[in-house]
User: Fold these one by one.
Assistant:
Number 1:
Amino acid sequence: MKLSGGVEWALHCCVVLTRAARPVPATRLAELHQVSSTYLAKHLQSLSRAGLVRSTQGKTGGYVLTRSPQEITVLDVVEAIEGPQSTYVCTEIRQRGPMGAPPEACAAPCAIARTMYAADHAWRATLREVSIADLVRTVGTDYEGDVLGPIGEWLVAADS
Amino acid sequence: MKLSGGVEWALHCCVVLTRAARPVPATRLAELHQVSSTYLAKHLQSLSRAGLVRSTQGKTGGYVLTRSPQEITVLDVVEAIEGPQSTYVCTEIRQRGPMGAPPEACAAPCAIARTMYAADHAWRATLREVSIADLVRTVGTDYEGDVLGPIGEWLVAADS
DNA sequence: CATTACTCGGACAACTCTTGTCCAGGTCAA
DNA sequence: TTGACCTGGACAAGAGTTGTCCGAGTAATG
């Protein structure tokens, strides 16, 4: 029960991409965060498949957010990386064994599964309430001075 | 990001243990659910270490709940199996790279981590609201007739 | 318009963790 | 004393994650 580390990378990338005027290559994003560029590229592909970022190829290619930051929720990013499936999978063990319940009585999920699903929904609801724009705003108030601005400029600078 | 399958087993065991008058051996619980007895035993050991069940050794040994069902929450069981650590681990990548933030500015967790922690807390809060007694009550209304009673009797029966 | 350099994209291994099994040791009731 | 049961650890298999590589495509450039 541990979230993939790629979620953290992807969220940080989305936050800094809000301050980039031009497409940012995966290599530059990896350099900024000091992570493996090839592995980060894989996660960026997931974001691309989910439609959160658009990739442009060629010499000045890279990644750009497709929507405005307030229209991208943290849940969007998490589900793009982790997948939309629930954290709990019910194997219907109530139907198994000598005291197993008959299948026709198990149309609805059992009480245990319903509880776990409710918790999963509460988790997702919390993530849905926060947008990338909210994160950017919070980062702005967390530190003295503007920290995201210089990062955005560094991302589109000529070289490192 | 998938919950261990042992959580499902443990929860079902706790529910049926509420209807067992005497200690129930792990073998019998495994037989009831048609799962590996040796692997289930490992999870029951986790419940024992967490203090949710008491194990008695010897010929008529087995597992019994230590507290009344309404004093055991679903979260207790989940944390006994999965551990109490958060689902999200922050690696502080904001401090890394050429634009890394200085450590003295990172006393508090970053905005991303705070959001993930909040979602984690919401998940746990939901699980904490539901007790084993609640599950037993819900199971009673889910089906026609009493399904847990016969199971409790079967658990303490002489043989299968 | 051809070249070239740069990018993404998906297929390919190495690794870690979870899942599952097994056995020796200790304990209690009959 | 015997048999059944729990405890703890060591051990193997499988899945999922982490990480790497090379080919296809695209845009700038001369």
Number 2:
Amino acid sequence: MSTAYALIDCNNFYASCERVFDPTLKNRPLVILSNNDGCVIARSGEAKELGIPMGIPEFKARPLIKKHNIAVRSSNYALYGDMSNRVMETLRSLTPNLEVYSIDEAFAELSNRLTGSFWDYGVEIRERVLQWTGMPVSVGVAPTKTLAKIANEYAKSTPEREGVMVLGSNQVIEKVLRQTPVDDVWGIGRNYSKTLREHGIETAFDLRNQPDSWVRKTMKVTGLRTVWELRGRSCLEIDETTEPRKGILSSRSFGKTVTDCRHLKEAVASFTERAAEKLRAQYCVASNISVVLVTSKYQNPGSKYKFGLEIHLPNPTANTPRLTKISGMCVEQLFEPGRHYKKAWVMLTGIIPQQEVQRDLFSESSYDNKDYSLMESLDAINQKFGKRTMMTAGSGIDQPWQMKQQFLSRRYTTRWDELPEVR
DNA sequence: TCTGGGGTCCTAGGACCC
DNA sequence: TCTGGGGTCCTAGGACCC
């Protein structure tokens, strides 16, 4: 193996973050709920063993939670985001070629190492991250990213591996692929795995042995890449760049259903505010904004429950008041009395770097220097004094639609007033 | 009663151009 | 009856990821 990829993945990331700052949670089963406390989105190892499934609605899990005295937390993204940065910085101290793939995983490219030393490298990563951040991680090493994912999974589920697995020789790869259910392969989701199983393809090993033409036909080029990667031919490279996002979405379910237009406009205004903030954080402007209002899809199954509108902005902008005004007009058009709204979202697309904006000489509404410095001060104030210190009046003060967060832990690392205390 | 919030890539098909 | 051949751009929708 001359070039190899490592996948470093935090174990039960959200649960581990909570534990770093609250030792009473050690060894106790723990679940983390989605925004709005709707579903279980993360579980500690103990909670998994007790049979709490991923994604289950909280009310369905409640009997088990009671029975086993499982600890419950609302998701605390301020805390998780900060912990994630610490882990990634630690990884960068050990490997220059790092691709941060998600909040809790990163790929590293390892060139010119001897097979023997991959294992040592994995152990070193684990030890350093644990020591510097308190976060347990697992490491999988293999000739391709797809195989590194599988190696990582194997390291996690096989305690004897002590959190590190190297897939080097063909014999070992084959043995592990035979044990890997096809739906555990990266890139194979619910739909494809159903199709594959209908064709008698049960394991990663079976999938690897399918002819290219059939794979291409049933799973398109992305599927073919997956199969080649399983065969050890690398098709996916390390991507270290952080390109600007192509779309920025801000959405929330409401704490309780919203039926009046004013509150709906407030909610959408505040989502617009957040989206615009993200947009400016990457020094970009948007050329389109779309607003979607959502009612319950469970209430009248099959009937329409999403109502959306997209507006093209002749002059791309990142100006919050301007965007808020447009999204408010969308709400007015979409709103129908009598509907019970559960959720809304605001999406910004057609995103281009600020400097590349075509100036429109005859219009005052382009994103000019005055706009820019106003927004810059707004962001600076909110960063210094906390979110929503300054906001547009349209986003409402009382915000009755705010999400439920009954079990929120403190933002230990990002708020002075919520630092952990030692007695 | 109660069901998350972000993202990516690919493809097909239509509009439109020369 | 016969009815070009190529291209681009955009959108909607479907698949996937964490």
